[in-house]
Amino acid sequence: xxxxxxxxxxxxxxxxxxxxxxxxxxxxxxxxxxxxxxxxxxxxxxxxxxxxxxxxxxxxxxxxxxxxxxxxxxxxxxxxxxxxxxxxxxxxxxxxxxxxxxxxxxxxxxxxxxxxxxxxxxxxxxxxxxxxxxxxxx
Length: 138
Ligand code: 5GP
Ligand code: ZN
Hints:
By secondary structure, the chain is α+β, with helices and mostly antiparallel strands. It is built from 3 helices and 5 strands; from the N terminus they run H-E-E-E-H-E-E-H. It has a 5-stranded antiparallel β-sheet with strand order 1-2-3-5-4, covered by helices on one side. It is globular, with a radius of gyration of 17 Å. Bound molecules: guanosine-5'-monophosphate (5GP) and zinc ion.
């Protein structure tokens, strides 16, 4: 799609360090890794986010994430792997082509910021009301 970096990677116009590919998805190393082994999994079709990607492509990404996570565990023996997927500029999605991050962490690496938020109990009444609104819209 136009000037989408990830579409160019899929087309082979921009190089990448590929770790996995099938008919529907491509997995490759993130060029600005948060940790060793930081990997992205993308659908080959251009879909911007979770509400655009068709269910079949989403399933293909999730299926691949399981295989690639297993491979990361075999190759790097991380202590854990964070899964991250951003939708929209407001939450710092930078590349507007759906992508699923696998971010492994070794014990000697710094704590991943996105997994270390402070637990503050919420207002139960507000949580109930918001949940009702979402449930009604499912
Ligand atoms: P987002 O914030 O959109 O979830 O993250 C986009 C990710 O894509 C970032 O982690 C960034 O490092 C990665 N990225 C951006 N451009 C390229 C590129 O040209 N090649 C690769 N391999 N990764 C990229
Ligand atoms: Zn694209």
